[in-house]
Amino acid sequence: MRFSVLASGSTGNAIYVATDRISVLIDVGITGKQAEAALETIGVNPAELSAILVTHEHVDHIKGVGVMARRYGLPIYANEKTWSELDGQIGTIKEDQRRFFSVGEKKELEDLGIESFGISHDAAEPMGFCFYHGKKKLSVATDLGYVSDRIKETIRGADAYVFESNHDVELLRMSQYPWSIKRRILSDVGHLSNEAAGDALLDCLTGGAERVYLAHLSKENNMIDLARLTVKNILEERGLSVGDDVHLRDTYPDRPTKLEEL
What we know:
The mean pLDDT is 97. The strands form two sheets. The chain has a seven-stranded mixed sheet. Helices cover 28% and strands 26% of the residues.
């Protein structure tokens, strides 16, 4: 199983996951042109894509979904409530491209196992995904107001995690955001702070050299180095050696991560 975080952050999110038989995008929150450029950067021909999975309907996750689906004839998988929100945002989609993937459902697309799980966020019915190929597992969990025990149990045991580390609480509180937006981000249906990300990961990691991609960083209320340092300190305070027991990886809003294989 191969994957790359094509774009991640408050300005747009997209992830590529593939096996030798199938390749999918999780969200396309960037333009179609940007998605194509990111794929080409990692050596992937967009014409070889198989499907798009949608976590939820916020624009930083669906901006290019309609364009990519129409351009390459890709089926779009989303749950029923998310589809009800997508219909007015991504343009006309042919009926045979509209597929349903319910919360808690497990599907096999070719040789890629996919499991969805519900997350706490202010969208119609937001989801995260776990991917399985052979004995390997990739867990994708962003846009989390908080991480429930059920989510931890679902994503635990992965070889790699794409995990939200959205903001530094003090930077957010000192920012010029209106209080209503600050309150929304800090709420149980908002986004996960660096500290909360580190605490949640402690309950998921085994110290088996897992890779953790810190994702969905706020452009205004976080910094890559700060997110990594905060999570690193929390993990190491509890006895995990970053660099040995776990490997932290950065993600970027404007370029893809290296295409990695599990």
